[in-house]
Design a protein that fits this description.
The complex is a heterodimer of chains A (1040) and B (158).
Chain A lengths: L1 H28 L5 H12 L4 H12 L4 H18 L5 H14 L7 H12 L8 H12 L7 H17 L1 H6 L2 H11 L5 H16 L8 H9 L18 H12 L6 H12 L4 H15 L4 H4 L3 H14 L3 H20 L9 H14 L10 H12 L3 H21 L3 H20 L14 H12 L4 H16 L7 H15 L4 H15 L3 H20 L10 H16 L4 H20 L6 H17 L4 H24 L11 H15 L4 H17 L24 H4 L2 H8 L11 H14 L3 H17 L4 H19 L3 H4 L2 H17 L5 H11 L6 H12 L18 H19 L5 H14 L2 H19 L4 H17 L8 H11 L5 H13 L5 H4 L3 H8 L8 H16 L6
Helix pairs in contact in A: 1-2, 1-3, 2-4, 3-4, 4-6, 5-6, 5-7, 6-8, 8-11, 11-13, 13-15, 14-15, 15-18, 17-18, 18-20, 19-20, 19-21, 20-21, 20-22, 21-22, 22-24, 23-24, 24-26, 25-26, 25-27, 26-28, 27-28, 27-29, 28-30, 29-30, 29-31, 30-32, 31-32, 32-35, 33-35, 35-37, 36-37, 36-40, 37-40, 38-40, ...
Chain B lengths: L24 H4 L9 H9 L21 E4 L4 E6 L9 H15 L5 E6 L7 H9 L1 H9 L1 H11 L4
Parallel strand pairs in B: 2-3
Antiparallel strand pairs in B: 1-2
Helix pairs in contact in B: 3-4, 3-6
Classes of the chains: A mainly alpha (1040), B alpha+beta (158).
Chain lengths: 1040, 158
């Protein structure tokens, strides 16, 4: 009794549900309300209804004698299953599947819904075993796939894919019948979406080793008939299928199994012989893909035809793509033959194939004047680089031949070609994997190779010398080819090229070769090149009396030596030899014993920086820099600053000091944090309390505060830039003693000092430290005090402090930069301050240019190399926040103020990544067009240089404004400034990329206007005009 | 290139390309007037593609700087070109390409003379006559097929 009572309400509820279900079904079937399917599906998922009830409810509909009604019923059932197939019980799936299989025999208008339902059922995890076979049986038997619509065919392929995923074993049990069914189903398919699926099925069949039985050729036929794919997606294609997707998918099928080889290879050869470029390319790439799984058995009979097709393409093609695809295919073929295991009675097919290649190519190597020498060399190299065996075989023929030809031909152009071919062979021999314990395939020609190279180096033709140097580099980097006295000879040659007045390219290559060989052959460079360079720089460049200025050739020699010293400093041992020479030069210039131009001193500093950067990873070198180099250079700078008799020392010059900053910052940013921190605190003590005990030849006055500014001590205060280089490059968590005192002194210096270099450096130093200062109350307090001080100066009307406005502005700018980089909340109000200053009569231009600083990485501080706190995408963020304000300011400001806004905006745009620009540009375009016609030539130029990359990348956004743009650009081709004329012509050139129908109406007008700059007085302008006009002429013409 | 088509000269001699013109300080100087010189004219035509090889006229030595003469003041240009073989059927086409390139790239004031280097081609005079005849050059460019080949020779190589 109890039970019954408690069940009563539930039964009542169920009866209610049943009625509700029936009415929903009614509304769907008769009322044609598709949304009801959703409601029922929700009910089934939540457990309100069961599938069984639904089928019962559909009873009369499914048995109706009107096909449309039956169809509607099946549609409802399928939509519900689609929503809840995951929750179905095994029993339910079984019954439903049987039902659906049966329905396949029903009227054709029902079929789409039946397939939809079957597709959902095959996704069910509860699919009972044995059903897959029966579904496939019904499908293949009752349905003719190709007479269905696209969506239904798509369903069939999805069903196959689903079953392949879940019931692989059962499908394989069908034997070749499955493959046969699939072949019948896809035969004649045309839709790209369906093709992608059916290629996927074919790929699975091959990769998962389904039995192909007697249907191998049929499967190949039914897929290969699409090769090569020629598909142009319609414009605005919503499916996003590209030619490339189809090509790659089909390639995976065709190249998937060696069983296809006998059919595929003839097809590829046929397509290679066609006239269509893309077909050749596809054929070559497919060949490269398929040989990866082939052996010599498959290839054997086609090798001669494949070779002759590849050879023909590489010899005759005008397209680099076809050439490189041909070379990769040859590389693949040779690699495949090299891999194949030979049986004792088969011939060595690699040997035969290589003989064929060598026979067809080697005689071209004997004609170094003719065109085919290069393609022949490339073919041989492609084959040689595929395996050690191939490399040995080809080297044994080619290298002696080239060496002999080199001695046979005497003209330097011929020798040069031969040497360059030889050099490429040495490279490709290095690429081919050397067998365990084996010697390089070139080892036996070591002696002759060296003598040919030395012969080229002693030639009088500089082009031949350059090729000789390149070959020397190749030999030197190839293990085991250069040793003993040959190295010494090579180093002597290199020294000669650096010390003698040869042409520019040769000396650059000599420099590069020295750099690359120095780390392998350190001793020879230490004992031979360094002394030679040292003697020359000390005797010839610095040995002069100091009275007469050095000749031009001497200056060039000086620069070459300095550069070479930096280039070879690739090893700690070499660093210890080369750096003292550079320091000696610095010291000599400082004492004034010799006269060295300022730019030469700067280049010494720059090369010193290169050495420090090159040696960044080495602990040994880092020790040397911190213990010896930095104190020495700092000592020299201090002497220059303090000693009256040293007023001529170049170390007092701003430019020289600026060049020294990166040396300090590179040393301080090195990976040896302990050393860097120690040096930094020593230098800090020197600046704050005048403790100079760590300096050599310490003869500076004790206890001087270098950061206190007086009227005439700018020579001393400007040394703050070196302090900046040192303390601002430390890692972010490094601790500095007396940091807060330092910040106070720096603030004072940058607000009050009158010397521009000093106050800017102090501001930069402050900014560099604040950027890394841990956030918290202390930082907030510090910033608040500083900003109040800046504000007071900027807003003051007193004449005494208005002279300090520039200092305050510079300080504000650098502080903004420091905070912007670390996403500090104060950066937004500070940026607003800068925006306000854009209309300031005296600071407006400075403020506009300041935006360039905010967006760019400064070379010496606040960049990644200085370990600054630089957040990702700060530029984009800055742009998003600032651009609307700039646009607004531009629109609301009076005409004479507008250019500051435009300038600031174009500075920002110039630094943004293209992807961001492309999305933001449409909104800013009117403003940019305004910029083009702004009278300020600097704004014009920067707007044009901002427009140019956009025109190259996304010309379509400009389509709407084309009329205005072309008129303005044509106007600018007669601007007074050469750079603007050039830039506007480049933009006009870029416009030719627009779709033809858009641009063609402007053709004749533009051609007429472009005739004028053809007669420009500047050659650089004429060059751009010729390029632009040539492209405009080709527009719409045949042959473009 | 299909199996059937054969080039007239399969393996021609190739020559070194001259590098880009070196920039001088005067080139950068706004006020200095750069005259149009031989090298500038040569730079205009040296990169024209050969109609049948993937090579430039310079690499085939069809044009050389020493065979280019310009007088900026008198507005005259004279270019001699040398076909790779004396029976080269492409000679007229090459001459036409050079002429069209110069017409498109030089100010209108220039009188342009393009002819074959004396004694290097079998039908030298006939070709020279064709190239000198304004009407015939204009008529040739009306021919779509000819214009197509000329435009291909003048296009930047892909």
């Amino acid at each position: 009794m109890c039970d019954l009572r408690s069940k009563a309400p539930r039964m009542h509820a169920m009866a209610g549900d049943g009625l509700e279900l029936l009415s929903l079904v009614e509304e769907f079937v008769v009322g044609q309300q598709d949304s009801k399917a959703e409601d029922i599906a929700t009910g089934v998922t939540t457990g309100q209804f069961t599938i069984l009830k639904l089928v019962e409810g559909l009873g009369s509909v499914l048995t109706s004698c009107e096909p449309r009604t039956r169809g509607r019923g099946v549609q409802l059932l399928s939509s519900v299953i689609q929503q809840c197939y995951a929750n179905l019980q095994e029993q339910e799936v079984q019954v439903l599947t049987k039902f659906y299989e049966n329905r396949l025999k029903d009227h054709y208008i029902i079929t789409p819904h039946v397939l939809q339902g079957l597709k959902s059922l095959t996704m069910s995890p509860a699919l009972p075993s044995g059903l897959a076979v029966s579904i496939l049986g019904s499908l293949f038997q009752d349905i003719h796939v190709q007479s269905l619509m696209q969506a239904e065919r798509f369903c069939v392929y999805s069903i196959l894919l689903n079953l392949m995923g879940s019931c692989e074993g059962e499908l394989k049990g069908l034997g070749a019948n499955f493959v046969f069914g699939f072949i019948q189903a896809m035969d004649g398919e045309k839709d790209p979406r369906n093709l992608l699926l059916s290629f996927q099925i074919a790929q699975n069949i091959i990769n998962r080793k389904y039995e192909l039985g007697t249907f191998t050729e049929e499967l190949f036929e039914v897929t290969s008939c699409y090769f090569p794919i020629d598909f142009n997606p319609p414009p605005n294609d919503p499916h996003g299928i590209t030619q490339k997707d189809l090509v790659l998918s089909l390639r995976a099928v065709l190249s998937g199994t060696p069983q296809f080889a006998e059919f595929l290879l003839p097809l590829l050869i046929e397509k290679l012989d066609s006239d269509i470029q893309s077909a050749k390319l596809d054929a070559l790439q497919t060949l490269t893909a398929c040989v990866a799984s082939y052996g010599h058995k498959e290839l054997k009979e086609f090798l001669p035809s494949l070779w002759s097709s590849i050879r023909r393409e590489v010899f005759q093609t005008a397209s680099e793509k076809v050439e490189s695809a041909g070379l990769s295919a040859l590389h693949g073929l040779t690699a495949c033959l090299s891999r194949s295991v030979l049986t004792c009675d088969s011939e060595d097919s690699l040997e035969t194939f290589l003989n064929l290649i060598v026979k067809d190519c080697q005689h071209h190597l004997c004609e170094p004047d003719l065109k085919l020498v290069w393609p022949s060399a490339k073919l041989l190299q492609a084959a040689a680089s595929s395996s050690f065996r191939a490399s040995c075989k080809i080297s044994r023929v080619v290298v002696p031949l080239l060496l002999e030809q080199y001695n046979h031909h005497v003209q330097s152009t011929q020798r040069r070609t031969l040497l360059e071919v030889l050099q490429k062979f040495i490279h490709s021999a290095k690429r081919s994997p050397v067998e365990e314990g084996g010697e390089s395939s070139l080892a036996e020609y070591r002696q002759s190779l060296c003598s040919v190279v030395f012969c080229a180096l002693s030639d009088s033709s500089s082009a031949l010398q350059t090729s000789g140097l390149r070959t020397l580099m190749a030999i030197g980097n190839h293990p085991g080819l250069l040793f003993g006295t040959d190295i010494e000879l090579a180093v002597d040659h290199l020294s000669k090229f650096i010390l003698e007045d040869v042409d520019n390219e040769t000396s650059l290559v000599a420099m590069e070769a020295s750099g690359s060989l120095a780390c392998l052959h350190t001793t020879a460079f230490c004992s031979r090149m360094v002394p030679a360079l040292k003697e020359k720089i000390l005797s010839d460049c610095l040995g002069g009396s100091g009275e007469t200025p050095p000749a031009k050739s001497q200056q060039a020699l000086f620069l070459r030596i300095v550069r070479a010293l930096a280039a070879i400093s690739t090893h700690p041992n070499l660093v210890r030899e080369t750096v003292p020479i550079l320091l000696q030069v610095l010291s000599a210039s400082h004492t004034g014993n010799v006269q060295i131009r300022q730019e030469d001193v700067i280049s010494v500093c720059q090369n010193l920086q290169c050495i420090v950067e090159l040696a960044q990873g080495s602990e040994e070198s880092a020790c040397y820099f911190h213990e010896t180099v930095i104190p020495y250079v700092l000592g020299l700078s201090l002497q220059a600053a303090f000693h009256k008799e040293r007023t001529l020392s170049p170390l007092r010059e701003e430019k020289v000091l600026s060049a020294l900053v990166p040396v300090f910052s590179a040393a301080s940013g090195c990976s040896q944090h302990m050393l860097a921190a120690q040096t930094a605190s020593q230098i800090l003590m020197l600046f704050l309390v005048g403790d100079a005990t760590f300096l050599p030849e310490n003869n500076v006055p004790q206890n001087v505060n270098l950061l206190k500014s007086h009227s005439d001590n700018s020579a001393q205060t400007q040394l703050v830039c070196l302090l900046m280089g040192c303390v601002c490059s430390l890692p972010i968590n490094a601790e500095l003693p007396m940091l807060d005192q330092l910040l106070t002194e720096l603030e004072e210096l940058s607000c009050t000092c009158l010397h521009p270099f000093t106050y800017t450096s102090a501001a930069k130093c402050f900014a560099g430290l604040v950027n890394k200062y841990p956030s918290g109350q202390k930082l907030d307090q510090l910033l608040e005090n500083t900003l109040t001080r800046i504000d007071t100066i900027l807003t003051s009307t007193e004449p005494s402090s208005s002279s300090n406005q520039k200092q305050a502005f510079t300080f504000l700018l650098w502080l903004t930069k420091a905070l912007l980089l670390r996403y500090h909340p104060l950066s937004a109000p500070l940026t607003d301050k800068l925006l306000c200053l854009l209309v300031d009569p005296s600071l407006g231009t400075l403020a506009a240019d300041g935006f360039a600083l905010l967006m760019n990485d400064p070379p010496d501080v606040l960049n990644k190399a200085c370990h600054a706190d630089v957040r990702m995408m700060y530029r984009q963020r800055f742009f998003t926040e600032t651009a609307p304000k700039l646009v607004q300011g531009f629109n609301s400001s009076p005409k004479e103020m507008k250019s500051s806004y435009l300038k600031a905006l174009s500075h920002i745009l110039n630094c943004l990544p293209k992807q961001v620009l492309i999305s933001e540009l449409p909104a800013l375009l009117p403003l940019l067009l305004e910029g083009v016609s702004c009278p300020d030539s600097e704004v014009q130029l920067s707007t044009l240089s901002c427009l140019h990359p956009l025109l190259l990348d996304i010309p379509q956004v400009l389509t709407l404004h084309l009329e205005t743009l072309i008129t303005k650009l044509l106007g600018l081709t007669s601007s007074a400034a050469m750079k603007i004329r050039i830039m506007s012509l480049r933009c006009l050139h870029a416009l030719t990329q627009l779709p033809l129908h858009v641009i063609l109406p402007f053709r004749s007008r533009t051609l007429r206007a472009l005739a004028v700059p053809l007669d420009d007085k500047k050659r650089l302008v004429r060059k751009e005009a010729v390029l632009a006009r040539g492209e405009w002429f080709l527009l719409g013409g045949p042959g473009k | 290139m299909a199996e059937g088509t054969r080039l007239e000269n399969v393996n021609p001699l190739i020559y070194q390309r001259s590098g880009e013109r070196q920039l001088t300080a005067e080139d950068e100087d706004e006020d200095f007037v750069d005259p149009i010189d031989d090298r500038e004219i040569f730079d205009l035509i040296r990169s024209i593609n050969d109609p049948e090889h993937p090579l430039s006229l310079e690499e085939l030595n069809v044009v050389e700087q020493m065979r280019v003469h310009v007088n900026d003041n008198e507005s005259t240009v004279s270019v001699e070109f040398t076909p790779t073989i004396p029976h080269c059927s492409m000679a007229t086409l090459i001459g036409l390409s050079i002429k069209v390139k110069l017409l498109r790239s030089l100010p209108e004031r220039f009188k342009i003379d393009v002819h074959i280097s004396p004694g290097t081609h079998a039908s030298e005079q006939a070709v020279n006559k064709q190239l000198a005849d304004k009407e015939r050059v204009a008529a040739a460019l009306e021919n779509t097929h000819l214009l197509e080949v000329v435009n291909q020779c003048l296009s930047a190589r892909v």
